[in-house]
Design goal:
Number of helices: 7
Number of strands: 7
Oligomer: single chain
Structural class: alpha/beta
Strand content: 15-25%
Distance between the termini: 23 Å
Largest sheet: 7 strands, mixed
Length: 255
């Protein structure tokens, strides 16, 4: 298969990315130089995607028979009307399926970096922000996000990693924006002898916990090179749609 996917800034075909230098300076990771290191997720993503499509990615999505069109690093999708950061996709990929329907793919790249704070800890920070500034909307964002994804707020959600909620919301929001019928959220993990296995295993546990609550199946687990779905979020709003099919998967790349 000839790789004709366009790597570019902000899904703009006229602003192509043809080198690691351009990848970093056009679409730097949030931590800039601090996060741009060999063996860490931001730079390894660039190295493995700049001129090729990694085989594990091709393999896991083979049943969809997709044609990949655009690839943008560090793309941000808004999933609500509030100020602040939206969903920062490590990679956002646009594709067409066999009947020419749009498909949106969001990739979260990891080595052993965690999925951020829990919903409980994020909620406490939001409540503190509201106490300091009555105009803060952080607590409203969290509430609306939980209701959209799960249909309600309950204590089971509090131990989930908040980054996984925003990742799913951002993937669905971008799919709606692109008029896509399907959305795919993938965890891409780079494996080496230097990986912190304890943190790596914690990420596996955190993903399974999220999947169990999101899918309403207490035994839900996702194995390496596995894609599960389709799932639907609980409620639609201006940014999110409950009629978009969502798949969740993960794969590993040895470096």
């Amino acid at each position: 298969m000839i790789d004709k996917m366009i790597r570019c800034k902000k899904l703009d075909a006229s602003d192509k990315i043809d080198s690691l230098y351009e990848w970093f300076y056009k679409c730097p990771p949030q931590g800039k130089q601090k996060h741009w290191k060999d063996g860490r997720s931001a730079k390894e993503t660039a190295k493995h995607w700049l001129h090729t499509i990694p085989q594990p990615f091709i393999d896991i999505l083979k049943p969809f028979q997709l044609k990949y069109t655009f690839c943008t690093p560090e793309y941000v999708s808004k999933f609500d009307s509030y100020r602040g950061n939206g969903r920062n996709h490590d990679l956002l990929i646009l594709a067409k399926n066999e009947v020419n329907e749009n498909v949106v793919i969001s990739i979260e790249s990891k080595v052993d970096e965690p999925f951020g704070d829990t919903v409980a800890k994020t909620k406490v920070a939001a409540e503190t922000a509201r106490n300091k500034n009555k105009n803060s909307k952080a607590i409203d964002r969290i509430k609306e996000l939980r209701i959209a994804l799960f249909g309600k707020e309950d204590d089971q959600q509090l131990h989930l990693r908040y980054q996984l909620l925003t990742a799913v919301a951002g993937t669905i929001a971008e799919a709606k924006s692109q008029k896509a019928t399907s959305a795919i959220f993938l965890i891409q993990t780079f494996i080496s002898d230097e990986i912190d296995k304890k943190k790596h295993n914690q990420n596996k546990t955190d993903l399974d916990k999220f999947l169990a609550i999101f899918s309403k199946s207490s035994n839900a687990k996702i194995e390496n090179n596995e894609l599960l779905g389709p799932f639907r979020i609980a409620e639609s709003n201006v940014y999110l749609s409950d009629d978009i099919d969502l798949w969740i998967g993960k794969y590993e790349i040895e470096i």
